[in-house]
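User: I'll paste a sequence; please echo it back and then give the predicted structure.

Assistant: Echoing your sequence first, then the prediction.
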Amino acid sequence: MCRWAAWTGEPILLEELLSAPSNSLINQSRHACKAKTDVNADGFGVAWYGDQPFPGQYRDILPAWSDANLRSMAQHICSPLFLAHVRASTGTALSRENAHPFVHENWSFMHNGQVPGYAKVRQQIEGMIAPEHYASRQGSTDSEALFLLALGQGIEHDPLGAMARVVQMVSPLCGAGLRMTAAFSDGKRLFAVRYTNDAIAPSLFVRRNRQGWSVVSEPLDVEGEIWHEVPAGHAIVCDGTTLTQHPFCASSLRAA
């Protein structure tokens, strides 16, 4: 599995999530506390929004802790909205194209979880991607496939509904064990979902902080009591200083 962190609110330096906290995302790449895999060394990536309508993106195949460029960049880039990810592969190749976040026009997307038996159902899933979006396929991960499916399901007009429809499309193909926490953004709003169709949902936490919101796979510090855990089968929407929580595919949950 993977670890990720996102921010929306007043502009902050990327290092405030990536490297400064005691349990920063870079530290989680060495030793995650709430993940099935405690080492996340199969690449990393950051997508951030600034003056352009589309996000900047930096990805590589190195472990996050060993890339000096990442630490230097994080000390200088200031953004009101960004997504950052450290990867633990669930079977697909180690490559820059498979590193999260994925971007398409103004959208960015990152994912932690799995599509069980993906190698067996990959052809069927990819066959459901709209041709105009399949042309954007760069890597081989289930995560990127979910993102491209969501683009075809109308993510621009109905972000949570599009992601729910993707879950409903994929779940019958792979059976129990479909698990995900995903964060995605159009450059104005930040969305995050927590879902499982069995009893094990990847963790998702949120915290109000300095006129903004941190949304993470696991708390960034030891003060765990001030983080709110998002329940399985729910989604959150961060729009400026406002956060709302919504049911997400709750009817298809077996247990949470």
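The chain has one domain: 3-252. Confidence is low (pLDDT under 50) at residues 250-256.
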